[in-house]
Amino acid sequence: MSIINNQYFSGGNIPTAAELNAVYDSVAASTVVDDNIDVDWANRNFLDKDTASKFINLGYFFDYDGTTKWPIPNGNLVYTTIENVSGTKSMVSPNYVCKGKALVRVHASGIIEDIAIDASAMDGNGTNLQTNYNVYSFKVKMSLNGSGTPSTVDICTGAYSLTRKAIETNQTTSAAVRKAINYRSFCISGIAILDVNDIIDTVELQAVKGLDAQTINIGHNHLQVIIVEN
Amino acid sequence: MGYTKPYTYTDNTVLDVTNQSNNEESLRKYVNQEVVVTDIPNATFVGESIATPRIVSTVNTIDFVTKTIQGHNKIRLPQNFAYFTSTTKSDGQASYTLFDYQAIPNSGFEVNIQTANTKIMIVAYFKIYSDNNIHTPPRGAGNGRFDSNLVLQKEIGGITTQFLGTKNYVFEQSGSPSGSTPDAGASDESGNNRSIMITRMFSLAVGLYRFNFAVNPRVEKGFVNCQSVTFETFHI
Q1: Angle between helices B17-33 and A17-29 (to 10 degrees)
Q2: Nearest CA to A221 among A11, A118, A80?
Q3: Per-residue pLDDT at A116
Q4: Nearest CA in chain A to B114
Q5: How far from each other are the two terminal CA atoms of chain A, in whole angstroms?
Q6: CA distance linking residue A173 with residue A162, whole number of Å
């Protein structure tokens, strides 16, 4: 649909069929082209900024800003959702149905408070068999219910060491090296692409420790989820 | 092109009012409401058809249709540290109740919110360290484990608020016995060299906000580099 032809008649004229058809045929034969729009025609003012269901970017977030520590529970290498306050997990529940191939972007951050290293296990003997002694990890897990079939997606993970010892080393004696690093920040981020009609039920921030004997306390922590429909 | 006129005129035929009305109505609908995907061939428009981002380079701001991005990236300038110091607190440098939050250069932006419940996303990375020689005997309370803490803060209407849930630490040193809390744990480099990463989302009311990060120092000489900070305001 480009410029539409028009017919001009004077008083007393008898229009012919061709003249009457011309305007309509002009539309039917043409198509939308660049002439029909102007520079900056699609700007923010024309878009609905008040109805969340029409948003291109949808944000969900969880913040635990308190001082109650959450020790990563024993669990044989199974990730557990952080829960500084009983009954309030570090998670969001968008319950969102994807309109198109939505992109899900997640960020998570927080602080590790004090760590108690098991006096017997320490941070491992420096061999790869004991790498897990010196590791804890975070994960952002997304639960989906696409067409009624539940599934999960691990969007991102990030692992940290309890001490400043490298994974494999022959350093096993220095107390300075083997002391835990307390009050350090952690941060992970990632993206996932979903299909039309996937339903995002929940997104959770989880943690796990490599060895049950270690004590690792999580302090304030934060989770952000941005669903991008574009 | 999805348009077909309902009635085709022919010469020497008396024009029926319904046919005429149908043609005009179909044209009105098509032009006003019925542009669909198949009406527009690929590569029809130029990029300028959609509002292009407005770049305000003086304040590192790019304003897109759907969001505004503000940010700094100093990762390529690792030597570009700024100082912070507790000497501004006179003899209260080690106090746990005396605060002097000092703004970190390149870490702040004005965020203009025009629609209620607008969400903003903040991602920031800092390199921060203390470079104190522990005095012997220690100066003041001098337990060698002083923590300086870094927080996000906002100012609106002249009121500054710290988000204590963003508190992160760098230590003077660690390993010395003391009653100081928190305890950095591992000594030397691990205590007084910290990479701090903060992510935070807010839902804001209408207003002009000023966000920045600040340090409450408890050491005489500290260094901080805001290596990367991004503020995203999601309009739609």
Answers
A1: 20
A2: A80
A3: 93
A4: A49
A5: 26
A6: 16
- Please indicate whether, in this complex, the C-beta atoms of B236 and A56 are within 8 angstroms of each other: yes
With a CB cutoff of 8 Å and minimum separation 6, the contacts of A130 are: A121, A124
Q: What is the pTM of this model?
A: 0.83
Distance of CA B4 to the CA centre of its chain: 51
**Rg of chain A over CA atoms, in angstroms?**
30
Spatial separation of the C-alpha atoms in residues A119 and A97, rounded to whole Å: 50
Task: In whole angstroms, give the CA distance from residue A126 to residue A128.
Answer: 7
Say which range, A2-6, B66-70, B151-155, has the weakest mean pLDDT. A2-6
Q: State the Rg of chain B over Cα.
A: 30
Q: How far apart are the first and last CA of chain B?
A: 31
More confident residue, A30 or A160: A160
Neighbour count for residue B233 (Cβ, 10 Å): 25
Cα atoms found within 13 Å of the Cα of residue A220, Cβ hemisphere only:
18
Give per-residue pLDDT as tens, B117-128.
Answer: 999 999 999 999
The reply to whether B12 and B105 lie within a common domain is: no
Contact B92, B85 (CB under 8 A): no
How many domains does chain B contain in total? 2
**CB-based contact, A21 to chain B, within 8 Å:** yes
ipTM of the complex: 0.84
Q: How big, in percent rounded to 5, are the helix, strand and coil portions of chain A?
A: 15, 40, 45
Give me chain B's average pLDDT, please: 84
Per-residue pLDDT at B141:
47
pLDDT in tens, B21-34: 888 888 877 776 65
Q: Which two tokens stand for residue A55?
A: 């948003």
Please indicate whether, in this complex, the C-beta atoms of B5 and A21 are within 8 angstroms of each other.
Answer: yes
Are A1 and A96 within one domain?
Answer: no
Q: Does A9 touch chain B (CB under 8 A)?
A: no
- The range of the structural domain enclosing residue B25 comes to 1-44
Chain A CB contacts of B65 under 8 Å are 42-44, 47
Q: What is the DSSP secondary structure assignment for residue A135, as one 8-state letter?
A: E
Half-sphere exposure in the Cβ direction for A66 (13 Å, CA) = 11
Residues A132 and A207 in one domain: yes
